[in-house]
Amino acid sequence: MANYIIEGDTGPWELVIGLEVHAQVTSNAKLFSGAATSFGAEPNAQVSLVDAAMPGMLPVVNGECVKQAVRTGLALGAEIHRWSRFDRKNYFYADLPQGYQISQLYHPIVGEGALEVQADEKNPDSAVRSIGIERIHLEQDAGKLIHDQHPTMSYVDLNRSGVALMEIVSKPDMRSPEEAGAYVKKLRSILRYVGSCDGNMEEGSMRADVNVSVRKANAPFGTRCEIKNVNSVRFIQAAIEYEARRQIEVLEGGGAIVQETRLFDPDRGETRSLRSKEDAHDYRYFPDPDLLPIELSDEFLSECRDSLPELPDAKRARYAGLGVSAYNAAVLTAEVETARYFDAALDALARPELANDAANWVVAELFGALNRIGANVEASPVAPAQAASLLRLVADGTLSKTLAKQVAEVMFETGGDPEKIVEERGLRQTSDTGAIEAVIAQVLAANETKVAEYRGGKDKLFGFFVGQTMKAMAGKGNPAVVNELLKKALG
Amino acid sequence: MSVDLAQVKKIATLARIAVSDRQAEALVPELNNILHWVEQLNEVDTEGVAPLEAVVPNRTRLREDAVTDGGIRDAVLANAPAAEHGFFAVPKVIE
């Protein structure tokens, strides 16, 4: 994916992409006030006088937000700054009651790190690229404007005002829309493992500002444009693609790229200029005199470190070590909930040698069944321990694979334990040679012509006899024993 | 460091303060006096001296992550020039 180029009239062009991802920090209360952060409340119901910027109100930092930013930084292998500070970014807009956003320009809490990205994690041969992280800083979200409720007025809801955001700034290391997409997916996955952001892009918990420029091979960076507030992986990729082509057209037409902010219009699939006043970006940052610097103690840092879960890459490697295929390992680790289910099933199973059977079962049977009933893995009618019991019944020969499917169907319907279903419905596989031989004798007696044909050299008929025997036994014959005895009887 | 008339006008615009031409002209020497006065600090040799972050040595105290505020919509909206359906209502702003 490193070789993505766009052919222009004047030759091939390379893309240079950097992302600023705004991730809403998972916390009960806001960054500087005690108002709630939950989504979907009545307008202005979750606003304190601090969030509304009433005179005399003072911000007090929420420790959990600091912790979440540090944990995120640690998960990205980034440098944690023991000393950081808040600055004011000054601008006027109706969704910003303070007249400034409290952010961290000069001394962000997290410095450089990196994210390993693979275009296709399910393919073990897909190239791995390291995308640099420039910094992560904490800042306040603004309020929300609603323009379509009144002919001449805009409505302002400050529920989001003051909610903590992490701005995760990448280096300009991405070279294709797919790579940018893979980066956002990986970042989202890690944030959700860490629990520092719910990654819900529809609700705006994660959105990206996308910086795009184009250049000829080995040329210095071109002038970039920033596409603001793109809220899905698909849109990010579409915006990059469109913007790169637009810039190439401008450059090849003899024009120059103006550094500007643009908006992506998903309906038209294009970006357009946000014509702001020229001094809109004169933010006049200065240290916020209302807030003391944040100093992180050793205890605080070790608390953050100790509370980190196993991360997706480590988990993937561990699963691979247990013999799980690269494809299954990628599918199982992509979402934290799936990995949690699989880990619980592995624990209950306590048979590491069955890990890949368990993986196959989760990826094929469980996901298939969940899709059919439209449930997510957390609402699975079959608990991880029940899945483990089922796998154990297959491993010890109580159930054939065919019978296991039947039992699983009943489990998905009733939520019952597999052992009980096997007992109640008499689904136990039989390896009783006497019983199987008796059935085989009947089958052969009823199909004398075919027996003669088989003995005359029509080997393919063997499958027919297996099928007839299994059918006569309602699927309960142990396939290995049936095969063996049939061969002997026909021999 | 000093400012000229154009800079004074720009600062006024950024701060959303209406300043007449006459006021702006008067502000140029006034602001420059302040700047020159502060600039005298540059004469002090501060080589090797760490910046003073706070006058009183103090560390920020972190708050518990608990919901202790909010649910006071009427108070929040009480001084708004216009409020409708629980929202602040402002002259339409669309970019």
UniProtKB/TrEMBL annotation, chain A:
Protein's UniProt name: Aspartyl/glutamyl-tRNA(Asn/Gln) amidotransferase subunit B
UniProt-listed Pfam families: GatB_N, GatB_Yqey
Alphabetical list of PANTHER family matching this protein: GLUTAMYL-TRNA GLN AMIDOTRANSFERASE SUBUNIT B MITOCHONDRIAL AND PROKARYOTIC PET112-RELATED, GLUTAMYL-TRNA(GLN) AMIDOTRANSFERASE SUBUNIT B, MITOCHONDRIAL
Function: Allows the formation of correctly charged Asn-tRNA(Asn) or Gln-tRNA(Gln) through the transamidation of misacylated Asp-tRNA(Asn) or Glu-tRNA(Gln) in organisms which lack either or both of asparaginyl-tRNA or glutaminyl-tRNA synthetases. The reaction takes place in the presence of glutamine and ATP through an activated phospho-Asp-tRNA(Asn) or phospho-Glu-tRNA(Gln).
Subunit relationships: Heterotrimer of A, B and C subunits.
UniProt gene name: gatB
A molecular function (GO) term: glutaminyl-tRNA synthase (glutamine-hydrolyzing) activity
Reactions mediated catalytically: L-aspartyl-tRNA(Asn) + L-glutamine + ATP + H2O = L-asparaginyl-tRNA(Asn) + L-glutamate + ADP + phosphate + 2 H(+); L-glutamyl-tRNA(Gln) + L-glutamine + ATP + H2O = L-glutaminyl-tRNA(Gln) + L-glutamate + ADP + phosphate + H(+)
Top EC group: ligase
Source organism of this protein record: uncultured Sphingomonadaceae bacterium
BP GO annotations: glutaminyl-tRNAGln biosynthesis via transamidation; translation
InterPro entries documented for this protein: Asn/Gln-tRNA_amidoTrfase_suB/E, Asn/Gln-tRNA_Trfase_suB/E_cat, Asn/Gln_amidotransferase, Asn/Gln_tRNA_amidoTrase-B-like, GatB, GatB_Yqey_C_2, Gln-tRNA_amidoTrfase_suB_CS, Gln_synth/guanido_kin_cat_dom
Annotated signal sequence range: none
Residue ranges constituting the Asn/Gln amidotransferase domain according to the UniProt record: 340-490
NCBIfam families in alphabetical order: gatB, PRK05477.1-2, PRK05477.1-4, PRK05477.1-5
SMART domains: GatB_Yqey
Assigned keywords, A-Z: ATP-binding, Ligase, Nucleotide-binding, Protein biosynthesis, Transferase
Residues spanning the membrane: none
Family: Belongs to the GatB/GatE family. GatB subfamily.
The enzyme's E.C. designation: 6.3.5.-
